């Protein structure tokens, strides 16, 4: 599936993601510098924070309790915040818009 990352400056990067991967890995593999992923995807650092485009929230689902708690450590969390390592890529997400934060901390 195609994923569109949009920076705070409005720059768009479209990348091809592999189903079965997670959004943090996709960002790292494609040199999206705004996503750090310091804990390697174990939901314990909150440096893979991103905002899911409103139209895609129903498809990505909601963060579980552990992710929700970690999100509170993120810089400027919002209702559409997710930890990208916890978003699984599936074909259903083709065309998904992901807004990148200005900074992770
Ligand atoms: Fe650490 Fe996602 S990579 S919480």
From TrEMBL:
Give the 2Fe-2S ferredoxin-type domain ranges.
1-104
Which species does the entry assign this protein to? Zhongshania guokunii
Family membership noted in the UniProt record: Belongs to the adrenodoxin/putidaredoxin family.
Q: Which PROSITE patterns match?
A: 2FE2S_FER_2, ADX
Q: Keywords assigned by UniProt?
A: 2Fe-2S, Iron, Iron-sulfur, Metal-binding
The protein's name is 2Fe-2S iron-sulfur cluster-binding protein
At the top level, the lineage of the source is Bacteria
Q: Enumerate the cofactors the protein uses.
A: [2Fe-2S] cluster
InterPro entries according to UniProt = 2Fe-2S_ferredoxin-like_sf, 2Fe-2S_ferredoxin-type, Adrenodoxin-like, Adrenodoxin_Fe-S_BS, Beta-grasp_dom_sf
Q: What SUPFAM superfamilies does the entry give?
A: 2Fe-2S ferredoxin-like
